[in-house]
Amino acid sequence: MIQVEQAYKWFGKKQALNGVSFALEEGQIVGLLGTNGAGKSTLLKAIAGLLPLDRGTVTIDGALPSIATREMLAYLPEADAWYPWMKVGDAMRYMKDMYGDWNDKKSRLLLEFFGLKENAAIAKASKGTRAKVKLLLALSRHAKYVLLDEPFSGIDPLARQQIMEAILDDFMEEGQTIFMSTHEVMEVERLLDHVLFMHEGRLLLQGNAETLRLERGKSLTAIMKEVYPVAHV
Ligand SMILES: Nc1ncnc2c1ncn2[C@@H]1O[C@H](COP(=O)(O)OP(=O)(O)OP(=O)(O)O)[C@@H](O)[C@H]1O
User: Where does the source fall among the domains of life (predicted)?
Assistant: First the structure.
């Protein structure tokens, strides 16, 4: 279980997290939805063990973020995570060397699914192709928790749908938890088991997706419009 309790983070005077608390059960697809600057990336980095909180705690299966918890987490960052000279195959080998849970068979299937070439230079690839490389690198690990920060950014809408369906049907592993940030609630609505709505460092609403839909008699997309201050949607 990923547990976040009373998380606070400041960057100078800017407060990025303002008392965020939640717990994520295993085996779920969780959406982290929110406005620009809501604190989504900051929260994911704190869980990934890349950014210390100023106050509060993150625990992963009861342990504070450390080298050991990083082994349990695959993290897809918003920024590119490879050296500029790397080809797709170099990035795959780099991740294989870094993480003992790299799954060669799955990485081959993902390579084929995304239509990527091992000898293609990543730096010269389109934004959408680079997003696919990042997804390949994150999903090829046999990690219990997969953190995806804006994973579909730059990928065209048609391909996004196919990728989401493939993640759900073919690439998500038993018991794995996928926690992903996105602005596109309508696109991911069908995928999500659980949802967190963030705004200006706070959680506005969170819960089981189906329960929220039943309680409020509307889609997550409509709920999102309802919970966010109009000027910021
Ligand atoms: N390294 C940093 N230095 C200074 N301010 C930062 C830093 N990282 C984040 N912030 C600020 O903290 C706030 C939260 O940023 P964060 O990137 O977590 O939001 P986000 O929800 O991921 O936004 P977006 O959807 O636009 O990517 C923003 O106001 C941002 O400008």
Answer: Bacteria
**Which CATH number characterizes residue 52's domain?**
3.40.50.300
ipTM (interface predicted TM) = 0.97
pTM of the model: 0.92
Task: Return the sign of the alpha-carbon dihedral for residues 14, 30, 68, 101.
Answer: negative
CA distance 229 to 190: 24
User: Does 34 contact ligand 1 (Cβ within 6 A)?
Assistant: yes
Domain count, the chain: 1
- 45 CB near ligand 1 (under 6 Å): no
Task: Indicate whether residue 11 lines ligand 1 (CB < 6 A).
Answer: yes
pLDDT, tens digit, for every residue of 207-231?
Answer: 999 999 999 999 998 998 888 876 4
Taking the CA atoms of the chain, what radius of gyration do you get in angstroms?
A: 17
Residues 6+ apart with CB under 8 A from 130: 80, 122, 154
Give the whole-angstrom CA distance, residue 210 versus residue 224: 14
CB of 32 closer than 8 Å to CB of 40: yes
